[in-house]
Specification:
The chain has 10 helices and 18 strands. It is α/β, with parallel strands linked by helices and about 450 residues long. It has 2 domains: about 220 residues, FAD/NAD(P)-binding domain, CATH 3.50.50.60; about 150 residues, D-Amino Acid Oxidase, subunit A, domain 2 (D-Amino Acid Oxidase, Chain A, domain 2), CATH 3.30.9.10. Strands 1, 2, 8, 9, 10, 11, 17 and 18 form an 8-stranded mixed beta sheet that branches.
Length: about 450
């Protein structure tokens, strides 16, 4: 098996704040052969949502996680449950998939947020939920004019009333900073992703799903009418397999996966708890989740205990030198946007991988020429909502139910050019984005 990045990109989480907030989960290692209806590769939000829905319908299901529970993006993300999941603009969606595709996608985005919200409310999960929608902050005057021009269209597309904010209004609401205005869309909320992950796992187990950790799948092949999944200590036989590994996928599991995804790094830092005086000094005391209008965006929010989370897109290498440069870069960007906190202690820092697809939309559907293999991949940095919902949609495919999503999500993604060197494609894209963001 092989992966695109250096081993460090898939390595331990490091100083991830979320790991300090939840007791380590105790999923057993798979030590004996097993036969189930469905095997799920990947124990993150996507795999657990699929397992929960399948087990709730009486389907026997086993989830195989290569590392500890919450190892990948589901345990490392910023905790933004919001709209997103695609990088394709509306015009491109309509041109590629037909008139109305963009509106269908907007409906799917809302359904993804509602799916997670429904789980939390129905089961009374305590996941440190906060924020009333999300606020987009203009980093330059032209960006605010674009927000103003798009506000009416956004209202029509999502069926809500967005609110424009002047810089003065932002300051009075505790969203101070070098912003030229903002736009709040009242859809979505923030949460603790590890608490959400733990709650999902508990409920899936309660429903009858078998969850296994430290059980990487080394081989996947057809045997008669079934699939055989081999781990170091056991073999799982399943009628159907769901591939839910997203940015942590292997290039050869199965070989069809080669060059279908482009993982990108994202880095996060978290401060010590900030006093009320420190929050006032920076002009930021809101619990609203926010991000700026840069193409290489920054995303940030105040956590319930007063800490401040700040994230940004990372680099294209996971070497020690590259990671050291990214660490300096994220601190410099943080200090520039919030100068009052320049000397505040950073207590946690980590990175993870988001997953880009060449056609800029997720893929949720059957893998061509692989009977009984379904994949759910490519959430473009919005996996809390869309990754969760994709797991439910993948389960619908297994059960023979019509997924409540556009049919074109099952369009097989094309491969990226350059194969194992496709990270090089992002170097000019990053340089262009940096120039545009000035």
């Amino acid at each position: 098996m092989s992966r695109l990045y250096e081993a460090a990109a898939y390595g331990p989480q490091g100083a991830c704040f979320w790991a300090d907030t939840v007791a380590p989960a105790d999923w057993p290692r798979l030590d004996g052969d097993l036969s189930v209806d469905v095997a799920v590769i990947g124990g993150g939000f996507t795999g657990l949502n699929a397992a929960l829905h399948l087990a709730g319908r009486g389907t026997s299901v086993a989830v195989l996680e290569a590392e500890h529970p919450g190892w990948g993006a589901s345990g490392r993300n910023g905790g933004f449950c919001c709209l997103g999941g695609s990088k394709a603009p509306a015009a491109l969606l309509n041109r590629r998939f037909g008139p109305g595709a963009a509106q269908d996608w907007a409906t799917t985005e809302k359904a993804a947020v509602a799916h997670v919200e429904g789980l939390i409310d129905r089961h009374s999960w305590q996941v440190d939920r906060h924020s009333r929608g999300e606020t987009l902050l203009a980093h330059k005057p032209r960006a605010f004019e674009a927000l103003r021009a798009e506000a009416e269209e956004t209202a029509t597309t999502y069926g809500v009333t967005p609110k424009l904010h002047s810089p003065e209004e932002l300051a009075t609401q505790g969203l101070g900073g070098p912003w030229h205005g903002g736009l709040t869309l009242p859809i979505g909320f923030a949460l603790n992703p590890r608490k959400y992950h733990a709650a999902l796992a508990h409920k899936a187990t309660e429903a009858g799903a078998h969850l296994f950790a430290n059980s990487p799948v080394a081989d996947l092949h057809r045997h008669s009418a079934d699939w055989r999944l081999s781990t170091a200590r056991a073999t799982v036989t399943a009628r159907t397999v769901i591939l839910a590994t997203n940015g942590y996928s292997h290039e050869t599991l199965p070989p069809w996966m080669h060059a279908r995804t482009l993982p990108l790094q994202s880095n996060v830092i978290v401060t010590r708890p900030l006093s009320e005086a420190e929050q006032q000094a920076a002009g930021w005391w809101s619990d609203q989740m926010a991000y700026d209008t840069r193409l290489l965006l920054h995303y940030f929010r105040k956590l319930p205990d007063g800490r401040f989370l700040f994230g940004m897109r990372g680099g294209l290498r996971a070497t020690p030198g590259a990671e050291a440069r990214l660490s300096r870069r994220i601190r410099a960007d943080f200090a520039r946007l919030f100068p009052a906190w320049k000397g505040v202690e950073i207590t946690h820092e980590w990175s993870g991988l988001v997953c880009l697809m060449r056609n800029l939309v997720p893929f949720v559907g059957p893998v061509p020429d692989h009977p009984g293999l379904i994949a759910a991949l490519g959430f473009h940095g919005n996996g809390v909502a869309m990754g969760s919902y994709a797991g439910r949609l993948a389960a619908d495919h297994v059960l023979g139910d019509r997924p409540d999503a556009p049919d074109w999500l099952a369009t097989p993604p094309p491969r990226f050019p350059l194969g194992g060197r496709r990270r090089l494609l992002m170097a000019p894209a990053y340089l262009t984005a940096e120039a545009f963001d000035l």
